[in-house]
Amino acid sequence: MSLLRNKTWILALAPITGVLFFGAAFGFFYRGVYEPPPANLVAYQDTIPQTLPVRSHVENPVQRNGLLLVDNAHATSYDENEISGLLARVADRGYSIEFLGDRSLPPFRPEERLALLQEKLPKADTFAVILPRVDFKRAELDVVNEFIRKGGRLLLIGDPGRPHDINALAEEFGILFQEGFLYNLVEHDLNFHNILVRDFSPDEVTQGLSEVVFYTAAGVKSSGPKLAFTDENTFSSMVQQVEPFSPIVKSTDGQVLALGDFSFMLPPNSTTLDNDRLISNIADFLTNSDRRFDLADFPYLFRGEVDILLGDAGLFEVGSSMKSILGANNIASQIRGVEDVTRDTIFLGLYEHSSNVAQYLALAGVQIDDEILTPFTPDIARAGTSLVILHESQGRQVLVALAESREDLGDTIELLKTGDFKGGLLSDNLGVFQVSTAAPPVE
Amino acid sequence: MLRAFRRLVGTWYVSSALTIAVGLVVGYFVFFNIYPGRPEIAVIDIPFTEINDRSSAFIAEMLDYAGGRNSVKAVVVKLDSPGGSVGPSDLLFLKMVRLREKKPVVVVTRQIAASGGFLMAMGANYIYAHPSTFVGSVGVILFTPTDPRPDERIVTTGPAKITGGSTRTFISMAETIKENFVSTVVAQRGDRLRITPQEISEARLYLGSDAVRAGLVDALGTDDDAIAMAARLAGISNYDLLKVNERVLEDCIRTVQRIIEPLDSEQVDVNLPGIPCATALFPAERSRFPRSRADSDLLSRAAIPEMLYLYVTPSE
User: Fold this and answer.
1) Is the model more confident about B29 or about B4?
2) Mean pLDDT to the nearest integer, B143-167
3) Adjacent-strand bridge partners of A184
4) How far apart are CA A245 and CA A251, in angstroms?
5) Phi/psi of residue A427, each to 5°?
6) Gap from B26 CA to chain A (nearest CA, Å)
7) Which of A36, A42, A268 lies nearest to residue B184, judging by beta carbons?
8) Complex-level ipTM
9) How far apart are CA A188 and CA B191, in angstroms?
10) Separation CA A203–CA B164 (nearest Å)
11) Cβ-based neighbours of B206, under 8 Å, separated by 6 or more
């Protein structure tokens, strides 16, 4: 009662009510307390990409004579300076280099490309086709096939990072550049495109390699040997297969080398790991050709200076014609009186001079009596025909051209000049040609 | 009359009632005006947006607004972005993380939350996706400057002065940024992640439903689910929703008006550099400052490397 009489207690109602209201409202709107999760920020400065060592391959190449022909006629997707590293290595080995076509000219028509191939490939030892955007047509494929048949070597390079259409040519030799690009998310050189390859099969191209890096490579399939294999973490963006991918393969006969990457040759990629050694090995492949030349390759079958021997002095005019044909193809020659068995030689004579070249006739299985006897045909009349034989031994080429008369021999030289003699070939190295209307050449 | 009133107040029950009323008024005032206030959930709407310097500045301003307002107890970000520039995307991710340290942030993706947009979402406490949302694309696109040939008319004091470095340098930078991006996803998703870092670095796009299985997002859900989750994480109920876009734009308009009104119309630079929201008000206009190559003769002659957290499909 005294409490009721003393009304000071009423003042306490205000804070009590306020606290109760605050508590009720808090309970109405708030059911808990937010506990923020940790920020978990990454220590960015600790991320340091792996860099691979740079290695230069010092070489002492063997000198060889030969010609590398580089395709420029099929709208290729590279600049000539991009392959200068490879070409320098080829030149270091004594090979000369020519380009098929001229990039500064408008695109070639199919018949122009074929004519270029027919003109240039017969004199080449090796042929490099890199990133062609125009595929090879049937007639062109036939020319390249003939080149390979004669021991020529072919380098094919594709790259999924650049447009190209190379499979029409590659398939001729049992090779297929696969769709898509290879990648490795676990181990790579700065980017997942840039795959490391450490598994190689023994070959001249893989000699001395322990690890190379390809920069956006395609897998290449081949019916022949596969030279490099990717690891279990390397996949293709397009192709699913159980076995490893192979960015380097050869054809069954070993004459065609195919690579699924072009950019590994470009600086600074060219000196990463063993890439420089690989480029050097490719140069060795290109300059190690077993190219065999036959009559159809005239006059390119001669690689150095040529001696011209005449049956008698009356044939000097014919010899001069031959000399000018060779000169027009940048082949030096001189007319000599005596055979030098260490030099390439062209013997021009009449049938009556056949005893001068008896050994070459015998090696070709040819006899000249009243008629011409060959291993391939019935006897052939001497009148109106000419005989051409090519003999190759230890790198020396000897061409023998005989006819019944001086005029017929002159006509034979003209035939060789025009290249229209291929219809009279009895074999790669023996031909009998009709050079006048006196008689048909072959029965 | 006055005496009767005094007598009435003097009675204990009347004076008690009056005191209680005062207590209620004070309690109300303190609760709603001083602390903690009626809770709000801020809703930030990011319609299909490429994250660049302009859009990121405006988004950052909205995040700052939500973070700085006491009554906002949680934030929902409705996100639709294929990503964009690396720098602005990193900025928005860090902004989200800082905001998350104060109040929960829930992201609900719409059509796409890819690359830089996905990185931004990594700063949230919880991520909802629609079943058909595109999510992921963790990676970098790099446009390298071409190596210029030496030019006698241009004098530089170092081999990399014009380019910033070789192509290989930039590839290395891109790899570093990618590694950081992947590491960020791994760190932010933590135990919720169901795929490996290698799988993340494939830069795949995932459908929302696949993204849940992969642990890249937390659940399939709608805006309402996101708001409910934000309330749950913040521990609030009976909240109000605050549309941050409208508030920021209203504030912006007031600011712009305050600046523009005293000026002649010819003096006005409608982009008002330094006021990011103004770019949202006048998006079609171009700044007078050289912000892009096209704006500057000097910059247009130079090779500027460009890195993007962006999902794009190249057109022919």
Assistant:
1) B29
2) 79
3) A234
4) 16
5) -150, -175
6) 6
7) A42
8) 0.79
9) 27
10) 42
11) B134, B135, B136, B214, B216
